[in-house]
Amino acid sequence: MSGGSTPEPSPGVESLLDELLSAPTEEPRTEPAPDETGNRRAGLLDDQARTVLSTAVHAARDWGSSALDDTHLLWALTQTGPTARMLRETGVAVDRLARSLRTLAGARDATGGTTEPNPWMTAAARHALLGSHRQARHEGAARLGTRHLLLGVATDADSAAGRALARAIEQGERNRARAHSDEQTSPTPWLDEFGNDMTAHAADDTATVTGREQQLEQIAEVLARHDKNAPVLLGEPGVGKTAIVEELARRITNRTAPTPLAGKRLISLDVTAVVAGTQHRGDLERRLRELLREIAEQRSGLVIFVDEIHALVGAGAGEGTLDAATIVKPALARGELPLIGATTTEEYRRHVEKDPALERRLHPITVPEPTVPETVDILRGLRKRFQQHHNVRIDDQALHRAAELTSRHIPDRSLPDKAVDVLDHACARLRLRHERTTTARRQPLLDPETIAEIVAARTGIPTTELATGERAKLRELETHLAQRVVGQQRATRTVAETLRRARAGLADPQRPLCSFLFTGPTGVGKTELARALAATLFGENERAIRFDMGEFQEKHSVSRLVGAPPGYLGHDEAGQLTDSVRKRPYSVLLLDEIEKAHPDILNTLLQVLDAGRLTDSTGRTVDFSNTVVIMTSNIGAQRALELPPENRPDPTEELAPYFRPEFINRIDEIVTFEPLDTEALTEIALLLLDDTRKRLHDTNTHLEITDSAVNWLVHRGNHREFGARHLRRVIERELHNRIATLLMDDDHPEGTGLLVDTEQDALTVRLIDDPPSGRHATRTNSATTKR
């Protein structure tokens, strides 16, 4: 092996040879006797071929792969003297080919390798070795040599290694032809140094981009212009801006691109590499002018792609020097720089829009986040790549689950990137789990349950919660809500019916999922119902986005919701409402005490209730169609306390002095909450005391509460006007304070319990020795509260 010593034969080689001997062939054969297998195995390869196979096994193990692929085999051939010389004689750049093979194999550092001593063969590696075997037999060779191995790889044109070898040979032939015609110098040395030819690498990528035809057509139209032919893709991180450009390069390579782009080279320019090392004045300008000169001379056959194009603004600027954007602006204006840019909407607004001369030379193209069905189509295009890399099979339902769960539960990232990330992670987990638990060669199947495991690990939402379908949740919604909201059966039923109606497709899809106005006294469960709804529908309490509308009583406070207009302080910051819903579209929007908001705030919310969307100060439109809007109000609370339901006026009559009719008419349901009776307060007390019991259990302290103690707390906490909040305060003041005093006592041993009871019309808290059954065994130290 050139460039190093020959490795010892890997123990995995023997098992690979056995697998090769047992592989099906086109000719019938008889099963050899056990004592003949070793002889056949020893005579199958010559010494150099055995060394190559051993080197490939070592490479697979060191690069973190548990499978031997044809890329490992071809890389080992490039490290062996005879085959390396053979490749160089055909004009192949062997070192460059070896580097590309490491990239294709996903090589990692040695510290990230696998300890698997006997890697198994992929289908591509098996195909290459069988082809080598057939070639050797065709030639009548006694044993299989390195040349046969090379021919075996070369004959599989569909494999990654076969394509890489074919391109290397083709490139070598072009280099030799160029040298023969005295064209040894590249016409674009500066672009070769600072750029990456995307069209040259597009043939390796079998994945396709779907659902972006509109953006691809817009790019072609702008590039076909005579002047200002510089489209810029704008979108959130992860929506697939770079993937669109890669798809364009793929179509140019496949000759399916529009005529103005046919045959062109698409070069990705690395701005950071251009700027790097320009320490002295004029260095950056000199580099850029050389690049612009080359592009102008070759512009009929070139398109330049600049990712993170906002980095041009200010790049290399210093005292007495120009930044990169200023240098390229004249070329953009003359149409001498056919350019495709990409950046986020926020970076474009922050950097590019502040330079009007640069902005008017660019043509923005918006790249929206794909929908869930569009994301599923994108994942289907990537399925083959992941199946080959991880050696797994991917169920179509897993693709749907990845798109749906990431869209709903990972709001801080964009589709399709987050779905692709979860799918890749799930494939890796399945592959490693399969290797640890079974020796079967059959490829494991990725199912929706593994996808749910990955999403659960990232979000903290229980897997059982993710596995429960939305329809099942909606069918049992009243039951789930009643577990947290007590004494409001009518309210929970109204909310559940409205949500089922919306999810059944009977509601306007352009409006919010549902909109409610909760009215009633304080402390009866209005806010708790909103939180319970968020936890039930979306899996976590944090999906309730809460705004206290008492903080929005001034006219100017509307800018806090949608962002300040240009020219005002904070205009470069996102609005609190629009930014929260943009990041978490599947959520409950809770607007507490809505009657306190300024009328301009209500006008803004009117647009949300009517159109289901809101445009912030930066021009971004936020979609509320998956959001449940809940507003709370204490309007009519006094009459609810004084009058029975049948004698109360219509809720809209009480709301009319505070809200305009068009605002009230756009609310789906006005839900009136009833004052809590003693039975409801008792249930709430039991829930609160159960929380106390769980917290004490975490400190190895057991709590027992008698029925008389519960009744004592409910009697003290029963305040019709203040509701459950008064009961909570009573429990904290009368019970928690006494428990804390006892637990702080030095005589309190760990692992004992507390008994809460009443004695002579007073609440008592005592230490007990045997928590499960020893209520009689009380200590003398106790805390007592009289009624």
Summarize the SSE layout with pairings.
Blueprint: H1 11-22, H2 34-42, H3 47-62, E1 67-68, H4 70-78, H5 81-89, H6 94-104, E2 120-121, H7 123-139, H8 146-154, H9 160-180, H10 189-194, E3 195-197, H11 198-202, H12 213-223, E4 231-234, H13 241-253, E5 265-269, H14 271-275, H15 283-297, E6 302-307, H16 324-334, E7 339-343, H17 345-352, H18 356-359, E8 363-366, H19 372-390, E9 393-394, H20 396-409, H21 417-437, E10 445-446, H22 448-459, H23 463-467, H24 470-475, H25 477-482, H26 489-506, E11 514-519, H27 526-538, E12 544-548, H28 558-562, H29 576-583, E13 587-592, H30 599-611, E14 613-615, E15 621-623, E16 627-633, H31 637-642, H32 651-655, H33 661-665, E17 669-672, H34 678-698, E18 702-705, H35 707-717, H36 724-743, E19 753-758, E20 762-768, E21 778-786
Parallel strand pairs: 1-2, 4-7, 4-8, 5-6, 6-7, 9-10, 11-16, 11-17, 12-13, 13-16, 18-19
Antiparallel strand pairs: 3-5, 14-15, 19-20, 20-21
Helix pairs in contact: 3-4, 4-6, 4-8, 6-9, 7-8, 15-16, 19-20, 19-21, 20-21, 20-22, 21-22, 34-35, 34-36, 35-36
Biased composition (Basic and acidic residues): 26-42, 172-183
GO molecular function: ATP binding; ATP hydrolysis activity; peptidase activity
Keywords: ATP-binding, Chaperone, Hydrolase, Nucleotide-binding, Protease, Repeat
